[in-house]
Amino acid sequence: MESQQQYPQQFSFEFFPPKTAEGTEKLIKVREKLGAVKPKYFSVTFGAGGSTQQGTFDTVTSIQQAGYQAAPHLSCIGSSKENIREILKDYMDKGISRIVTLRGDMPSGTHEIGEFRYANELVEFIRSETNDYFHIEVAAYPEFHPQATSAEDDLNNFKRKIEAGANSAITQYFFNPDAYFRFVNDCEDLNINIPIVPGIMPITNYTQLARFSDMCGAEIPRWIRKRLESYGDDKDSIKAFGEEVITEMCHQLLEAGAPGLHFYTMNMSAPTLAIWKNLGL
Ligand code: FAD
Question: What residue ranges do the domains of the chain occupy?
């Protein structure tokens, strides 16, 4: 973990683009509440196959116009170079200079892979088209990507993204800090020298969390799963337990030298702010 301690800690919040006018109004309020604690930036996800291309753009520009730094996510699977070039140009025209660069997943029903196969190819393309204009974030998987052929391959594939020009990484969420510590140590051994910021998922709803975690390969440890199951529909108990567990984990991560935290806010302010307050940030 030593190499991570040299980086200043930075805190960021992730949103998804709202689908309705009501969601857009709500997100403005959420953004103002979270903005009050002065995050480094807000990031905005990009739907599979570019399904939220306009929504991501609109949300990002609205955040920026409100005076915050905004970072769009951009995934490349199913895309052409021309389409990516246009998206990059639109962001450059708006002065957006930070981007979360991903492969993404093929949307169901689509079979055209497009001109990019992996995220490292997108990082390379962005660098070749725009030099050092963008600060490029990439995804990291302390518990390994669900399609990884082996831990070693996944680490080497992560390294390809750094060699292609990524500046920093955000991890998939996890509930087992040892997975993060080991991942960072392995990265040190591979001479990967960038900040690797832990992605944090507040616990608010067990069913949703279990479904989502199965899909993205994040493990919910048995002791957490069993307790959450035992609370049933008792939202207050889930909330109290979730807040305590995540606060404790964030505390451990920061104490050990993690270079900040990236919160998957799910477009809500209260769960993230509760953890924030507990941490005394
Ligand atoms: P890659 O880094 O390309 O890796 C994907 C898989 O391919 C891994 O198993 C890797 O080991 C393997 N691999 C990589 N490179 C090579 C290579 N050159 N040769 C052979 N194998 C290789 N999804 C969205 O749709 N929208 C979002 O906004 C979004 N935001 C995210 C933000 C974060 C912080 C994280 C952690 C994930 C996000 N995702 C998002 C999910 C992500 O798109 C999926 O996890 C996707 O399956 C992989 O994307 P990646 O960029 O990590 O892919």
Answer: 2-279
* Residue 3, CA atoms < 13 Å, CB-side half-sphere: 17
Which residue type, as a one-letter code, is found at position 75?
Answer: S
Cα–Cα distance measured from residue 16 to residue 265, given in angstroms and rounded to the nearest whole number: 9
Tens of pLDDT along the chain (281 residues)? Answer: 888 999 999 999 999 999 999 999 999 999 999 999 999 999 999 998 888 999 999 999 999 999 999 999 999 999 999 999 999 999 999 999 999 999 999 887 766 889 999 999 999 999 999 999 999 999 999 999 999 999 999 999 999 999 999 999 999 999 999 999 999 999 999 999 999 999 999 999 999 999 999 999 999 999 999 999 999 999 999 999 999 999 999 999 999 999 999 999 999 999 999 999 999 98
CB 127 within 8 A of CB 167: no
104 Cα nearest atom in ligand 1: 43
Query: Is 103 a pocket residue for ligand 1 (Cβ < 6 Å)?
Result: yes
Residue 48 CB–ligand 1 contact under 6 Å: yes
Nearest CA to ligand 1 atom 46: 104
> Considering only CA atoms, which of 270, 247, 246, 260 is closest in space to residue 11?
260
Provide the 8-state DSSP code for 267.
T
Q: Which pair of structure tokens corresponds to residue 115?
A: 């001109």
CA–centroid distance, residue 232 to ligand 1 (Å): 33
Architecture of domain 2-279: Alpha-Beta Barrel (3.20)
Cβ–Cβ contacts within 10 Å for residue 93, how many? 8
